[in-house]
Amino acid sequence: MRDPFAGSDFSQNSQRLRAGRPAPTEPEVGSFPDGSTSDHESVKETGTTTIGISTTDGVVIATDMRASLGGRFVSNKTVQKVKQIHPTAALTLVGSVGGAQSFIRTLRAEVNLYESRRGEEMSMQALSTLAGNFARGGPFLAINPILGGVDEEGSHVYSIDPAGGVMEDDYTITGSGLTVAYGTLEDRYEEDMSVDEARDAAVTAIKAAAERDTGSGNGVYIAEVTGDGVEIEGHENFEGV
Q1: 96 domain residue, yes or no
Q2: What does each of the 241 residues of the chain score in pLDDT, given as a tens digit?
Q3: 25, 37, 46, 48: which one is catalytic?
Q4: What is the CATH number of the domain that holds 141?
Q5: Is 48 a catalytic residue?
Q6: For the whole model, what pTM was predicted?
Q7: Is the residue at 69 inside a domain?
Q8: What is the count of structural domains for the chain?
Q9: CA end-to-end distance (rounded Å), the chain
Q10: Cα dihedral 75, 80, 86, 88 in deg (nearest 10)
């Protein structure tokens, strides 16, 4: 007797099912991209050079102003890469712009909640730990910021790596221009620097990085953090610094 379904779509589906393929009524398991292709080059990145220096009287943070697409095209020349996130603390914007901006907004919100609930300002140790926890467990793409702040224990500068590592130091540099900037700052740094001296050293190091690093340039933003608060100013093309 002839099979009425022979050669039909139903027959072909039956053969595929018998070959070990999943039934059409069962959920199909998907897969993640293999990573062979990437949109990395279309992501806005800061490239950047950012510097944090701790002094007896406060903290100086300096950054360049350039954002790029894939490190090849300058997409913005006036990016403010340092933001106040606490009454006496500031954080740099390093890595992908979207990830860094989201990171800063999240930290600001948590600092405000902490102060509202406890009626006191968050210490720099607590803030740096919180930042490290967010960097390690949050959806923040490729960030490596510097946190600088002042509390009852003095001045503090921390570097926060993408894996959530938090390291405090007298001075630190992150970003694509760090090798040039470190060479300049190592020659100028002194333990008893004043805020003005630290400012001059940081700006000089940013200028040096901008000369050689394609991801850095177009000017400098400077944040001075003291027990009285945070002051941020920008200078395009390093004019008037």
Answers
A1: yes
A2: 555 545 555 455 555 545 555 555 554 544 544 544 444 444 445 578 999 999 999 999 999 999 887 667 898 999 999 999 999 999 998 878 888 888 999 999 999 999 999 999 999 999 999 999 988 877 776 788 999 999 999 999 999 988 889 999 999 999 999 999 999 999 999 999 999 999 999 999 999 999 999 989 999 999 999 999 999 999 999 988 8
A3: 48
A4: 3.60.20.10
A5: yes
A6: 0.80
A7: yes
A8: 1
A9: 95
A10: 150
